[in-house]
Amino acid sequence: MCQLLGMNCNTPTDICFSFTGFQVRGGLTDHHRDGWGIAFFEGRGCRLFIDPAPSCDSPVAELVRHYPIRSLNVIAHIRKATQGTVNLENTHPFMRELWGRYWIFAHNGDLKEFSPGLDGAFAPVGTTDSERAFCYLLQSLRRRFPEEPPAREPLFEALAGLAREIAAHGEFNFLLSNGDCLWAHCSTRLAYVVRQAPFAEAHLKDQDLTVDFTEVTTPEDRVAVVATTPLTDNEVWTELAPGTLSMFHQGAPLASRSLSFAP
Question: Quick check: 181 and 254 in contact, CB under 8 A?
């Protein structure tokens, strides 16, 4: 199973602490060695780092771990290849433009007999089921809302329908963001924690590292962290039920929908 990590905040925040625990899951504390990547939204721009090497010994991952890039939305992925060879073009997250905004997508799972008709507006560069799903998802949104981006609620409803449709082909855990919201679909396993006042200490499960958030936050800060499995062992994480799509905004869950299909 690939590993997913997402962050959504109400003020630009760095992900160095969470990424420190996440990074070692790529070949050290777990067996995922088929590449990794991370994307940071900054205003209307997006920094994307991808590397087909294991994250546990990637120089690019070391750069990211020590570089406090502050962002409202972050998506990271550690790959365990199921479809497509191990190379740069098959490394998540994937990025495309829609309605004049960058969209970032990362997927954990395996979609069987999934060959949607694509009209060329969004075309896969690599050979993964994940990138095909992303292209189909954006194509479907563009067809449904051809003139301009919808408001959050109708966008959430459209994504819920698409998640249900694609998940019928197999395991479809994913994180998606347009720099405004973070959407998380749980097909089999995802969990989240919201950090807000009163802040406390957090200790990583995969590394012996503790951070006292009272020393690095303000009382107004709020951060939601989503991961395949909890990154810390002394915080209360909420497990998403299989077949659930959640939308995070300003560091908090804004909407959640239990879909009718769950593998």
Answer: yes
In angstroms and rounded to an integer, the radius of gyration of the C-alpha atoms of the chain is 17
DSSP string, 216-246: T--TT-EEEEEESS-SBSSS-PEEPPTTEEE
Residue 66 lies in a domain: yes
d(CA 223, CA 201): 14
Q: Are 224 and 252 in contact (CB under 8 A)?
A: yes
Is 184 part of any domain? Answer: yes
Taking only the tens place, the pLDDT of each residue in 204-235 is 999 999 999 999 999 999 999 999 999 999 99
Shortest CA distance to 159 belongs to which of 179, 180, 170, 175? 175
The token pair that represents 214 in the structure block: 């009272």
pLDDT tens string 103-126: 999 999 999 999 999 999 999 999
How many structural domains comprise the chain? 1
Residue 71: give its domain's CATH number.
3.60.20.10
Q: Annotated catalytic, 2?
A: yes
Q: Are 255 and 246 in contact (CB under 8 A)?
A: yes
- Give the pairing type, strands 238-239 and 71-78: unpaired
Q: How far is 84 from 175, CA to CA, in rounded Å?
A: 20
Classify residue 263: in a domain, yes or no. Answer: no
Q: Report yes or no on 227 lying in a domain.
A: yes
Residue ranges making up the domain that contains 27: 3-258
Name which of 30, 81, 90 is nearest 55 in CA terms: 30
